[in-house]
Amino acid sequence: MPHRSINELSRFIGLKWQEQDIESFIIIMKRDIKGLSYNELDKVIIKEGFPSYRAKQIYDWLYLKKVNTFRQMSNLPLDLIHYLESTFNFASLGCIKQNRSKDGTTKYLFQLSDKYLIESVLIRGKRRNTVCLSSQVGCLWHCLFCVSGKKGFQRNLKAEEIVEQLISVQRTSGEQINNIVYMGMGEPFNNFEQLIKSINIINDPKGINIGARKITISTCGIIPGINRLALNPLQIELSVSLHSAEDWIRDYLMPVNKKYPLKKLIAACKKYTEKKNRQVTFEYLMLKGINDSREQARKLSRLISGFKSKVNLIIYNPVSFYTKLLPSEEDAVLAFQQVLQNNHIPVTTRHSKGQDIQAACGQLRSNYLRFQGNSVKQ
Ligand code: SF4
Question: Domains in the chain, start-ordered, CATH in brackets?
């Protein structure tokens, strides 16, 4: 279809469209080149009569040199550039806001081609840099402590939109990225196909080449997603947001628990560790007076004892105008940690990064939308 002239296409569709309407239609119909795996690109290139090594050259331009247009691919022949231009889109995300925290964390607000907004975060560390990626616009699950789900779910991201977040962060920051976490806006397992496709592209040694063990998927506890990941050969890290060892508290904090309650969730995690021989990390947000007592630490120890797992206690980053939840006192965090250690549960404590730049999931987007009104999609 991209090879047809505007007039041919107009006759083909049978509508009297304006030229610019048809051009927009063609752009929508084209696939984005970054949605192709290396093997898919290689097949396309060979099918069009170009030698296979051209696919590697294109891959280098896309993921190593990170160019923005096909015209910049200066070692490609003109006929190949014309073919690529007429067949593929070259989407890039519009960076409409960038906030850098005192602790080095940078939060990005990106605009998609259909004007929806998503967030990504660069977390700079002494030995490694991590990028936190979004997998959906909005989210189905209304976790009490999270801003992303407050406006509901809008749409899934395509693999290329997920990959492009990473490339845009690399391009704008100039930083080497060592780790990826799917912990931004959205529930990754509710967008399983595009999630795995994006991981395969990010992991591909011919391109971005970030090892599977440096990639973490964080889920709110979608059991079918955990089961599907258990069957995937990639050695990806799995992190499950638990936040309570009691159903009634988890129901309150995370409505997903009504669909996938703790007993079934823990059973799925156990099966996952047995199948993959890998540990699961349980994320536990420390919330004052809600889930941070010694008794609750004992319940958590009982719930997850006996299989490969560790607990990551997170000091809550309050989102004042959305919820009255408060972070636990330091004493409570230490006591909670001690109980887990006494029960031989491996545990670490992590402070939320970028507190001064609205780095909680969905916070930057939400604040931006509050002040922009109708000029962007909600
Ligand atoms: S914490 Fe995750 S699953 Fe829950 S609402 Fe936010 S983005 Fe969705």
Answer: 6-89 (1.10.150.530), 94-375 (3.20.20.70)
